[in-house]
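In full, the data.
>
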Amino acid sequence: MYEIGKKARKAAETLPFLLFFLATPAHAGPALAICRGEYALCAASSAKPTGGSIVVNGVTFREGVAICPVMIGPSIADMNLMNGSCDAPKGKNSVWSLFSARQSYPQAPTWKREPAVHRTFTTTALPGGGMSNMWSYPCVKMSQRVNGVQLARCFGPLNESPWTGGRVPTGSNVVTDAPVGASYPVGGNIY
């Protein structure tokens, strides 16, 4: 469970990436489920600190916000963070930020559909040098579309492991689709 702070590529290439996420060890393990319908896909997004905090399984993290495109279709969720349901979070215009193995999707800054480019990076102690976890956290759809794309503001923890719920220390390797130079890229740490 979480509490929000106040401020609120080809199948052959994608399959190993997806299997990495599904086979990585976890605390009690994410309770994986396939959801269908609307969701935000933050895989190539970056985040900015909100100045607030977010509590995940009793641990307090700095909260980040990412702008992510809203997609429709099947996605992978962690039911442990979503009250056991794929139903949209409470609140008007809300969606969950979930994962999918899409080959391409709208990406910042133009929000044109671009191929997914998987990369790894090492976290640093520099401002923006960490990572963010937006998987299975709540988002609020923005009122205006950009180039026809519905976007959402998604809120999640900075430097929190999607696999263990623990802190991701400086010097950790992380997988992301966010471009080089992105601030707090959304991703998952590698063990």
The CA atoms of residues 35 and 85 lie 9 Å apart.
